[in-house]
Specification:
single chain, 565 residues, alpha/beta, Rossmann fold, Ribosomal Protein L25, Chain P, 7-stranded mixed sheet, RNA-binding
RNA sequence: UGAGGUGUGGCCAAGCGGUAAGGCAACGGGUUUUGGUCCCGUGACCCCAGGUUCGAAUCCUGGCACCUCAGCCA
């Protein structure tokens, strides 16, 4: 049984829900929702919210809706809707029949607007957006009342009807709530409910030229759907009094009344998380698209090779609280390594090949050896591995002048070729510039499989491929998008773009991978022994033209030792 | 000088008056045909100052710091 996903830690939201259940509020039901605006692709921050909302619903045997918060047609489109649906599904969540759109509620919202007008709680304002802003006041200075505030019900009804009918130009009027222009909470200073906007909506087409604002749509949508716990991020905390104010006007006794609960959004080190900034990276071409493997988007992580399980585990481990936070990117990487360690097929790949000739191995001979597919799981079996006179090893695994503690190959030294033989370096060949281009070795036939009968030990074990059998491959190495952990921090006053990591992508062309990778399916994941976890790129890899993405490297304690020295 | 929030080890985060969980990172050590995995070990008096109490990270008072709000975005 996978314990990591069944025993979840507690958090303040669960405390609230537990309390509600104790009080039999909403008959003990729990209904949540994930309400993205389809104006961009989902990112790891959304994943936190998705896991939270769907997770709570599952845990409390309730349900979770997927709702497109599509009240602003200018910024939204179907491409985004489709990507959201794909990403939430990929993460492993199921909303059943409960896919909704705020735009489905436009008529109901309009009726509620009429209700507010009739109650004298909403009015048509004739000011432009600029005028509204200019009269809103400041946190310490009360705003000025709009002239429209004094209008009678009949006139407001007439004007609002004509707004809907398209009699007024965009931005010339708005419907506003009549609350309190002197409220210390800026959100309560007669907030706009409807704006005139002649934009074709991706679902309602041209049926409307007025669209409700977030505050007038969200809580009501929750109410319509019977949401019990409406979970959102901290910046909406100051909107809660308004959320409740609208419900006060429309809620009927006996019906589920949603409660808004706010938690701290996720920030991750060495990246940015706002859709605006991610969009900017896409549009300026710094990345190849929303699914660029360097992006913190769900689609980017997927293409990079992340698994849904590892992302869910991550969401679990970071917890849910109200304190602002920036999570260490190493935690995400840890979750991925932990998941893949147990299930990734091991394979040998040489990223930077160095030719090795085994002088005492017959030319033209091929010997089939046996390799373990995953030492963590015997059931994954073994595979044959061809061994020949000419091999490739990693350039990093040979040093002409080995530093102390370096126990890989060097002149006169012996190492083990994983699953093959002990080899000893006898000589090296250099080119005119003095670079080592070939290593001459002898092998010990008595060490077949990598064991020595005489009990002799070797310090190092390195990976290799047979030159004759290896397949060429392109390998893409990714690094953080930014050079600093907090590109948006006020301390980094130069602006986040200054910290873009120009070396976040490094493409290697002459890589050599073992024969068994022939025909690797796009998207398939492997561990390249001693290097890291890789996946065949879902877009660019072909069975006969392999392209691999490095998802995450293995931990490398040698690199640490070397760095210290 | 308004309102709403938040402050527990490098990063997250439990704790809900009884004497500081856990994870990641870091650093030691052991095992190892991946310098991987795995195993063992190492760190906090809880923003500050008072107060209540036999006893406070948890309660009270007063400070300080940081975040959010002045879109007809969400």
């Amino acid at each position: 049984m996978d314990n990591s996903e069944t025993s979840r830690p507690s958090n303040f939201i669960k405390d609230i829900i537990d309390e509600d259940i104790r009080n039999n509020k909403n008959n003990g039901q729990v209904v949540t929702r994930f309400p993205p605006e389809p104006n961009g692709y989902l990112h790891i921050g959304h994943a936190k919210s998705i896991c939270l909302n769907f997770g709570l619903a599952a845990e409390y045997k309730g349900r979770c809706h997927l709702r497109m918060d599509d009240t602003n047609p200018e910024k939204e489109n179907v491409e985004y809707i489709e990507s959201i649906i794909r990403d939430v599904k990929w993460l492993g969540f199921d909303w059943g029949e409960h896919l909704y759109y705020a735009s489905n509620y436009f008529e109901q919202l309009y009726q509620w607007a009429l209700l507010l007008i009739k109650k004298g709680l909403a009015y048509v304002c004739d000011m432009t957006p600029e005028e509204v802003a200019a009269t809103r006041g400041t946190p310490t200075v009360p705003g000025k009342e709009s002239p429209g505030r004094k209008r009678g019900v009949e006139e407001n009804l007439d004007l609002f009807g004509r707004m809907r009918a398209g009699e007024f130009p965009d931005g010339s009027r708005s419907l506003r709530a009549r609350i309190d222009m002197a409220s210390p909470n800026m959100q309560m200073r007669d907030p706009v409910l409807y704006r005139i906007k002649r934009a074709e909506h991706h679902r309602t087409g041209n049926a409307w030229c007025i669209y409700p604002i977030y505050d007038f749509a969200h809580g009501q949508s929750d109410y319509i759907e019977g949401i019990t716990h409406s979970i959102c991020t901290l910046e909406f905390e100051v909107h809660r009094p308004l959320y409740d104010w609208f419900l006060d006007q429309i809620a009927e006794p006996g019906r589920v009344r949603p409660r808004q609960i706010e938690f701290a959004r996720l920030s991750l080190g060495y990246t940015v998380m706002s859709k605006r900034r991610l969009l900017e990276l896409v549009e300026t071409g710094f990345v190849t698209g929303w699914d660029d493997p360097r992006m913190p988007t769900i689609s980017g992580l997927r293409r990079r090779g992340y698994t849904p399980e590892s992302i869910r585990d991550f969401a679990e481990r970071i917890g849910v609280a109200k304190a602002d936070n920036i999570v260490d990117a190493a935690l995400l990487e840890h979750c991925l390594r932990e998941h893949l360690n147990r299930r990734a097929h091991r394979v040998m790949a040489v990223l930077n090949p160095l030719k090795v000739v085994i002088e005492n191995f017959p030319d033209g001979k091929t010997e089939e050896l046996e390799a373990v597919n995953n030492p963590e799981d015997e059931a994954m079996g073994k595979r044959p591995l061809p061994f020949t006179r000419t091999l490739y090893i990693e350039q990093d695994d040979f040093r002409e002048d080995p530093p102390s503690k370096f126990y890989r190959l060097s002149t006169g030294r012996e190492v083990r070729l994983k699953f093959a033989y002990y080899i000893r370096c006898t000589d090296i060949v250099k080119d005119s510039s003095g670079t080592v281009i070939e290593v001459r070795c002898t092998y010990d036939p008595e060490t077949r499989g990598g064991w020595s009968k005489d009990g002799r030990k070797v310090k190092g074990t390195i990976h290799w491929v047979s030159a004759e059998h290896a397949l060429p491959a392109e390998v893409r190495l990714y690094d953080h998008l930014f050079t600093v952990s907090e590109p948006e921090s006020s301390k980094n006053s130069a602006g986040y773009k200054t910290y873009l990591n120009r070396d976040s992508l490094k493409v290697l062309h002459g890589c050599r991978v073992e024969r068994s990778l022939a025909g690797a399916a796009p998207g398939s994941r492997y561990q390249f022994e001693r290097i890291g976890y890789f996946c065949a790129d879902a877009e660019d890899s072909r069975p006969d033209r392999l392209v691999f993405n490095r998802t995450v490297s293995l931990k490398d304690s040698w690199a640490k030792i070397e760095k210290k020295a």
